[in-house]
Amino acid sequence: MLQLTNTTCATQRRDFAVNKRTAQKGFTLIELVVVITILGILAAFAVPRFASMEGQARLAATQALAGSLRSGAALAHAVWLANGNPNANSVTMEGVTVNMTFGYPSAAATGIQRTLVEYTGFAVSTPTAGTRRFTKTSPTGAAIPTCYVDYTPPTAANLAPTITVSPAPPATTC
Asked: pLDDT for 95-126, tens place per residue?
């Protein structure tokens, strides 16, 4: 009888080990369905959020360029004032000649554009006489017509240039 008990214990140990291995083979179908459902719900909320970020990034780049235009115009005006010659039609900024109109950079390619170091991602045009437009472009190079900055130099002495951003605040994308 003692030998039967040892055999029974050995069989039980072997059965337990076999059952233990089969229990750790993988995930159940229910667990997989729950995980896929949770991922689907997260994706449903995340995708629209990331999709709207592209328009926000374009608007931020356009607003940043507007700030650069303001800074470039102010620096050129400061150089013009420091030179002490109110009749000067140009100033030199870091070795580059910038054409001026009433003490601010002109709208020509030799004016405001020369105050900018970098404006990659923008197409430059002249929509109307005396205005320089910087239109945001897509990664393929196509212009995005609703996303631009216009620079118009002053029309008389003692006036500041006009810098217009489209879309205007409180827009959040373009």
From this structure: 999 999 999 999 999 999 999 999 999 999 99
Nearest-CA neighbor of 155 among 84, 107, 90? Answer: 107
* Cβ proximity of 144 and 138 under 8 Å: yes
Instruction: Please write the tens of the pLDDT for every residue from 18-41.
Output: 555 555 578 888 999 999 999 998
What pTM does this model have? 0.72
Among residues 56, 156, 35, the alpha carbon closest in space to that of 103 is found at: 156
Q: What CA–CA distance (Å, rounded) separates 37 from 7?
A: 48
- Pair of tokens at residue 131: 């205005």
Rounded (to 5) percent helix, strand, coil in the chain: 45, 20, 30
Residue 72 burial (C-beta neighbours within 10 Å; 0-12, 13-18, 19+): buried
Q: Rounded to an integer, what distance in angstroms lies between the CA atom of residue 153 and that of residue 70? A: 11
How far apart (Å, rounded) are the C-alpha atoms in residues 147 and 134? 9
Buried b / exposed e along 75-92 (16+ C-beta atoms within 10 A): bbbebbeeeeeeeeebbe
